[in-house]
Design brief:
Elements (H helix, E strand, L loop, with lengths): L5 H20 L7 H17 L2 E2 L5 E4 L2 E3 L1 H12 L3 E4 L2 E4 L1 H9 L1 H6 L1 H14 L4 H9 L18 E3 L9 E2 L4 H10 L2 H15 L11
Parallel strand pairs: 1-7
Antiparallel strand pairs: 2-3, 2-6, 4-5
Length: about 210
């Protein structure tokens, strides 16, 4: 299967932020990578079953149930860009992350059908510990077959992405929103833009002079 596109990666990260934010708003915490991984897996499983394209992670069976290196990569990226924070094993959305969600509230409202899957997952599993949601997830049957996840072999792929042509609906992200989201999720790019704006305000930008 092909690598995720930039648009798929940005959608995944935005939805991960939303999932973590909604969990906190319910009064619960993401108590570590295991819980986050399993909540995303639960949401994506429901969406793929209904042919909805939003989360686009590849999951395989590992020691603690469904595992995705792409989830870990996106998590690390958002921690490095100050959209998420860690305190011990706990994962929190930062003020910067909440501001980003607020800025894209219109886009999220446009995709409210997909957010419904996220909210149902939060309502069902936000109160679970990592260990508890792992055990529940182990007893989910594979989407295509009767075998339970706990009966699959280590490294077996157990959930993949749905392709756009096979989906009945998908997360809508227009070009302008994609460009803005890409910028806001990149700390260095944001800082460079802010410096440029600040320099412009104090007249540090040099006037163009033609080369003779």
């Amino acid at each position: 299967m092909e690598q995720r596109t930039d648009r798929e990666i940005l959608t995944n990260r935005l939805l991960m932020l939303f999932l973590i934010d909604q969990t906190q708003r319910k009064g619960y915490r993401i108590t570590g990578k295991v819980k986050l991984m399993k909540m995303i897996f639960q949401a994506q499983t429901k969406m793929v079953k209904d042919r909805v394209k939003a989360f686009d992670y590849l999951f395989y069976r590992w020691d603690f149930g469904p595992m995705s290196n792409e989830v870990l990569k996106d998590l690390e990226c958002m921690l490095n860009n100050d959209l998420l924070e860690k305190q011990g094993t706990y994962i929190f959305i930062s003020n910067k992350g909440r501001e980003l969600l607020k800025q894209f509230s219109g886009l999220l409202e446009t995709n409210r059908e997909i957010l419904g899957y996220m909210n149902r997952t939060v309502n069902e599993f936000a109160s679970y510990s990592g260990k508890a949601i792992k055990e529940v997830t182990y007893d989910i049957p594979l989407l295509f077959g009767e075998k339970l996840i706990r009966h699959t072999k280590p490294s077996d792929q157990i959930l993949g992405r749905i392709e756009r042509d096979d989906a009945r609906s998908w997360f809508l992200l227009d070009d302008d929103s994609e460009e803005t989201l890409s910028l806001l999720m990149d700390k260095k790019a944001c800082e460079a833009l802010e410096r440029g704006i600040a320099d412009a305000r104090v007249g540090k930008i040099q006037k163009y002079q033609p080369v003779n």
